[in-house]
Design a protein that fits this description.
The protein is an all-alpha fold. The protein has seven helices and two strands; from the N terminus they run H-H-H-H-H-H-E-E-H. Strands 1-2 form a two-stranded antiparallel sheet. It is globular and about 55 Å long. About 30% of the residues are buried.
């Protein structure tokens, strides 16, 4: 849920700097279906009733879905903000792989939210001595915020990169002769165009 705040912040900052939301759709973001598939797997993986039933398939599915999203990020690395997203994703993936397909959460971070480790497969497991501890979920959003959750330094980098990407996209200059509503790169290309 940390990512939702990054999206909102990116759009708000973009607007405050004179950007236009409709220009986001002109991004030439490639391999969108693979990213959506990876994210969909994670949403399903950490939602009931699948989280209680996935068993030993949970860790490899989590790693595979994270790798899928990372591949898409690397494919689009030239876009502003995406290097930060890639760095954050690599950080998270390293922590997940080093801990057997789980992203550990610190007891202190969970306690700050008034939560404990969840039953079933979860991305908020508590381990006595997690590998790569500083890269795990050691932070928590304030408990009073909607959708508050624990998060890692990798999540911070991803969120910052997403915000930068949104602000940059919203403030893209228009080509001379184009209308202000038509940013550079529009035409047949766009956010949902699948390219190789």
């Amino acid at each position: 849920m940390f990512m939702l705040y990054a999206l909102v912040i990116g759009i708000v900052v973009g607007r405050l700097l004179g950007g236009r939301i409709e220009r986001i759709a002109a991004l030439d973001f490639r391999w969108v279906p693979l990213a959506l598939a990876g994210l969909a797997v994670q949403v399903a993986l950490f939602s009931s009733p699948l989280t209680e039933r996935v068993g030993s398939l949970g860790p490899p599915l989590y790693v595979a879905s994270t790798v899928a999203v990372l591949v898409v990020v690397v494919r689009n690395i030239a876009l502003p903000g995406l290097p930060l997203v890639a760095l954050g994703a690599v950080s998270n993936l390293a922590a997940i792989v080093a801990n057997g397909g789980f992203m550990p959460a610190s007891p202190a971070a969970l306690e700050a939210l008034g939560r404990s480790a969840e039953a079933g497969f979860s991305n908020s497991v508590v381990l006595a001595e997690p590998a790569l501890g500083p890269l795990t979920d050691v932070f928590a959003l304030p408990a009073g915020l909607p959708l508050a959750n624990v998060f890692s330094i990798g999540d911070v980098l991803i969120g910052l990169g997403v915000a930068v990407a949104l602000v940059s996209a919203m403030r893209r200059p228009v080509q001379p002769g184009n209308s202000p509503d038509r940013p550079v790169g529009t035409g047949t290309s766009g956010l949902f165009r699948t390219r190789r």
